[in-house]
Amino acid sequence: MIAKIKTIDKVPHLLSSRETVTLDAPAFVYLTLELPRAPKVELFVKEGDHVYFCQKIGVRHGSSFDLPIFSTVSGQVLGIEKHTSSSGKPANFLKVQNDFKDELDPEAKPRTAEEIAALTKEDVFNIVNDFGLTGLGGSGFPTIIKLKSSEKVDHILLNGVECEPYLNSDQTLMLNHAKEIIEGALILQKIYDCKDVRICVKGIHQDIVDHLNEVLAADYKDSGVTVALMKNFYPQGWEVAEIKTALNIEVASGKLPFAYGVLNLNVATAMSLYRAVALRLPMVERYATINGDGVAAPKDFLVRIGTLFTDVLPVVGGYTAEEGLRMSVGGPMMGSTVPNDDVVFSDLVTNVLVTKDHTVAESPCIRCGSCVLSCPTHLEPVLIMEAVKSNDRDRVKALKPLSCVECGLCTYVCTSGIRVTDYIRRAKILAKL
Amino acid sequence: MNFIKESAPHLQKGKSLGWMLGNVLIALAPVFIWSFVVYPIPSLQIYPISIVTCLASEFVFILITKKKVSEFKIENILSAIITGIIYAMCLPTDLSFSNGLGYFIVFIGALLGMILGKLVFGGFGNNIFNPAALGMVIVRAGWGSKLGVGESAFPDWVEAGGTHFFGGSFSEIANVNLLDSFLGRAPGALGETFAIAILIGLVYLLVTKTIDWRVVVSFFGTFVVLMLAAGIVVQVKLPESGVNAGKFLLYQLLSGGVLFGGVYMMTDPVTGPAGSPARYIYGAFGAIMVTFIRLFMHVGGVGYSILFANLLACVLDYPQWTSSRWKKWHIITLPVMIVVALAAVILVLVFKEGAVA
Description:
The structure holds 2 protein chains of 2 kinds. By secondary structure, chain A is α/β, with parallel strands linked by helices. Chain A folds into 3 domains: 20-106 and 283-355, no CATH class; 113-279, Rossmann fold, CATH 3.40.50.11540; 370-432, no CATH class. Chain A has 14 helices and 19 strands. Chain B is built from 13 helices and no strands. Chain B has helices spanning 17-38, 40-66, 74-89, 101-117, 131-143, 178-183, 195-207, 213-237, 245-254, 258-265, 276-297, 302-316, 328-351. The longest helix of chain B is centred in the N-terminal third of the chain and has 27 residues, at 40-66. Classes of the chains: A alpha/beta, B mainly alpha. Chains A and B meet through strand 16, strand 17, strand 19, helix 11 and helix 12 of A and helix 1 of B.
């Protein structure tokens, strides 16, 4: 089929629901230590120490920022263990035994409304830095860098598009925590003196749109916060597409939204800002999904950050096959596979996909051009693939593969079942050489 | 438990290659059936040789390159059959079969078309030229004198230059019965004369999104613009012949291989460019070539035009120039190309002595 394809069809081997099971906190949590962006870890606690719920127990040093580590339970520090990070590589985690008391860190006292009102831009930046807020849309990008580089902000967008199919953690968050998200937005609104705040939600999620509008009408009349209806295509949640739909501003390839006076944060990031500023609390839970025909009963969860995947496995009824399964962390379009199930639900894990083999056997490319028509970054994947196959670096460079966002549509639409995105990834490496 | 590695994305819309190739066969079916009804004997002589030759050459190629019979897959079979059918449909119905030369011509065209047009480039998906068009052109170049206009199954058809070759003078177009042309009651190649069947195929190909409408629109759009202009010149210069611009245009559309080539051959994605603005330029270029060859050389030129357009496709896909969005050079080139062609057509027909007769 030669067509521009922008929607992902439903498949029988994945479930879509929005019914959330709240999991009990696990007996042990595993806290992420080093991060690719902040590899140097400094721990304030040692083996055997008691830690409070939400206590800052360490910090990771990045190049220009620090990302602190918080305990998501109260209990005893047991030591460092190796587990699999969400990118699939082995990594160190701090094991904490849960005493099931959830004894809150005594320093975590909420700020009063007056205190919050008195906060300056600098104060908020300091809080963001202290809590090491990161982009919860999946990038994990330090929020402080985004906030500091935004000098003049004309529009604040809260990204709740969640355009990948079968993801719904942001949707659930908006239904259950609308107020916290809006409060987070109001803090930004105040420090940037920017009235225009838009929560970007797909128009097809009528229940979320209605709920947000109800909350806004009841408690935030004339606040300037509105709901912006997003279209139902993939990748609408990519910030360039989101900004285009919400504001009709075209962000050029290689430019960042702040150059256009736009500050764009995920809805979960806005909520984490509210918790840090108003409650002096980090994020300790997140909505996540275990999906796919590789587990018996796929479900949505509210899970304590630091829970091990294998602790949740019984709740989804275990695996449906002995071997041949694929497991990936992240959405079905962009998530990366992990080699084993020793994975921890960190703050960035929204979805774990366990599926049987559904890959399509490859046939020769007939240059139908569906990948060219569908590419959201206006690349020509088929030509990039041909250039990569001939190992011609100049040809690869001329086709500008670096603006690819790896949304996966070229593989998805391919009439010959070719995993085109893999070639583009190789092209990016070739182009950088 | 260990898990199998797989790069993102983990969803695929599903392969539709076999479905697309099958659609081309379905779209060819009306033409195929009609050719059997009208020309039963030539059909029985031409199709089997052509299809078997294409299939066999593809099979031998797979055996040589892949060394495994299991690599001879459904897409190889379907594409070889498609090439065989399209090539056969381009051949005239009055090959001299009595002394066996006709069979040889069908065979050698199919074989050389497959080898030189497709297999030397690496087989299915890698070819630069449309193998059917190349086969047809080789046969025409080598055995042109043995290929007639196409023996008419309709004795009452007025031979006015024929539909297959545009050989006659413009004034004779007045004698052509356009309805006969449209209904396929005209001499010509095995599959080229049946306008209704071809149009049914076109609609099917477009509805199932098997071909890119951009190529179809630009090819026929450009062709109509140029031929309409030519028709106006002819009407003005030959007022007493009774040829008007509308009849001239319809004759050009319904005669020879324009309809067939534009629907089934220009639209082959393998031999066309990948970028979408390039596809407009590709289609327009093909139409300009057909127009020039027909008007200035007084011969049928669809096969050659398609091969020229195939060559241009490689240029259009040149990495420094190509783009999936309209770049400045696309926006300038396409109209400039059409305007220059238009000027050439008008100037030659108006000022060249004997160009319109």
